[in-house]
Amino acid sequence: MKPGVCNMGCRRWTIWHRKMKEAPEYSDGIAPESGDMQAEEFRRFGHELIDWISDYFNRIEDLAVLAQIEPGDLKAKLPIAPPEKGEPMARIIADVDRLIVPALTHWSHPSFFAYFATSTSAPGIFGELLSAAFDNKAMLWRTSPASTELEEVTLDWLRQMMGLDAGYTGIIYDTASVSSMHAIAAAREGVELRIREEGMSGRKDLPLLRVYVSEHSHSSIEKGVITLGLGQRGLRKIPTDSEFRMDAKALTEAIEEDKRNGIIPFCVVATVGTTSTSSIDPVSEIVPICEKHSMWLHVDAAYAGSAAVVPELRYILDGCERADSVAVNPHKWLFTPFDLSVLFCRHMDLLGRAFSLVPEYLRTPEQANVRSGSDYGIQLGRRFRALKLWMIIRYFGHEGLAARIREHCRLAKLFTSWVNESADWEMLAPVPLALVCFRARPEIEAADEATRNERLNALNEAIMHGVNASGKALLSHTKLGDKLSLRLSIGNIRTTEKHIRQVWELLNQQLTKLR
Ligand code: PLP
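# pyridoxal-5'-phosphate complex -> structure
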């Protein structure tokens, strides 16, 4: 690629490169060691950058979805020491184009189908931009009344859109890993074992405390349990049924067995939308078990929770009217730029008891009458994340968001129908939402089933790598039992039927090549 010429072929970057050579190091004679970029320069580059982002979205399909570089390639192109003197903005941005863009895996590409496909959106980008300009640290109400109050209102909108009852109050964290960890900390606080005051180590009076999850729960729950000092022994994985949902009967048996052994069961984490298959644990069956044993029920709906904004999909949260907390990630399927995760909790008092600590230098006259985000989590300063979600909900409206998610589910069903109609492919899990788990299963000669399965696993892995190496689409995989499953997740705001047809063609080309 020629220096200064965008690898997307934008003329704008050629012009920038020219300007870069002409530009003085600093405008308006301001000494480099004082003050920020001058207003005119900020305005000029601000406009250029929005143009650049617009071009990026227009041309994103010409870029490879998966970064086509080797480990260390980018580092080798970057200076090992920081610049002594400041550099012109044009040169810095030209380097974004020249060095950074080729090293990106493009999550905003409409053929990104890996992991959980997620994407940003224009109003979300504007929200991030404004939030960076305001740079509020919403630790106390007074340090950002706007952030604090907008968060309360926006999350109540989200609660209503998801059909959750008014007993839930929302709070924003960065990720679902952190949301769920905070929920488990609140649950532990409710056990009345003075863990906040006395901790867990060195205590002979403290029996083992246990959290229960399905074997398909996300690893973040185990990490949260480890972080909270409960230890991996403090997590018990419950088997799932043939559709990868927690087996409620096995849960009851595990809890009762643990109780007989002097263990304190205090929390169940059910998953609505598991990572491997998007299976939905039977929350309504788990609720009475938790109630019987006075346990906290947390629902990890990081991925699927957003789908509840679609009225006909609200059933996925059935049972949550009797749960204690629910985590949902607008940064997964509500077109919100990373990061923004929401914890809806019924017991903000317990969350506060677990985390509130107000030193003298943070005391304010109004504190008894207002909410301060830092009372409900490990962080003091908090980003103004509510702004982007507020802008997204206002721009698309409830109907617009529901329509987009509904369309993703339709595309997943369409793809599923192609798999079902083909003799060479098979489905490996139900598709309640917009994630398809499937594999190639052509006729293969093998001495026994185990050998056949091993060969199919190798074939499917090779198909996935072939598709991903083409740069035209990106898939990921999981293991279901002993079967390697390909995963096609549809959640990108720019994905249309054309992209689903393309990836189906790519998959079949790879199969023809490799079979
Ligand atoms: N829970 C589930 C069900 C997930 O699928 C994921 C990520 O994919 C997470 C939690 C973790 O999300 P985050 O990256 O926001 O911590």
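# post-check
The longest strand covers residues 264-271.
Residues 429 and 437 are 6 Å apart (CA to CA).
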